[in-house]
Amino acid sequence: MTTEHQVTQDGVKRSHRHEGPQKHIVVFIFSIILTAIAFAAVAAGGVNAAFAVILLLVMAVLQVIVQMGYWMHLKDRGHMIPILFMIGGFFVAGTAIVMGLYWVWW
What we know:
Blueprint: E1 2-7, E2 13-18, H1 21-43, H2 49-71, H3 80-105
Antiparallel strand pairs: 1-2
Helix pairs in contact: 1-2
């Protein structure tokens, strides 16, 4: 990481960290590996269906964390409100799914 200096209108020098492409390249390779593992589990054919579904769900959750954290920059400071709104959305969607399943099978 490098530090960039910015001079504001008041003449005050402020600095902020600038991420280089190294982290993005590592995260991109990690995303490709996760996708390859999920694809290989399904393409193998001999894998137990329940294990494949669980593996795909785990890979999907990891992929979401990586995508949100690094590509959408939610790991940075000042992004707490969008994170809280997404958590609220997941809660509402999860509640709707659970209640829909309960309603269908009750």
